Hints:
- It is a single chain.
- The chain is α+β, with helices and mostly antiparallel strands and 89 residues long.
- It has three helices and four strands, in the order βαββαβα.
- The protein has a four-stranded antiparallel beta sheet.
- A hairpin with a 2-residue loop joins strand 2 and strand 3 (41-49).
- The radius of gyration is 13 Å and the shape is globular.
- The two termini are 23 Å apart.
Amino acid sequence: MKAVVSVLGKDMVGILSDVSQECANANANILEVTQTILQDMFAMFMMIDISKLNQPLSEFSVHMEEAGKKKNLVIHVMHEDIFQSMHRI
């Protein structure tokens, strides 16, 4: 099972490190990462493997959103099936 993580916010040192650490703490394996900086805004998408997650996905998602708020980031976690369904024509 996979999930998509999106991260948006003002660029600052340590965003990738912080998000990666949160994934590691939940036993989510990062499969792919793409990131860019648009002027002073940071944008990142990650595909993570959640098959060995040590907590329910809903709990992980809430935790990630709360961690993001502490750093003025918007972080969303979405199961791959939902993400794929939202983007079908």
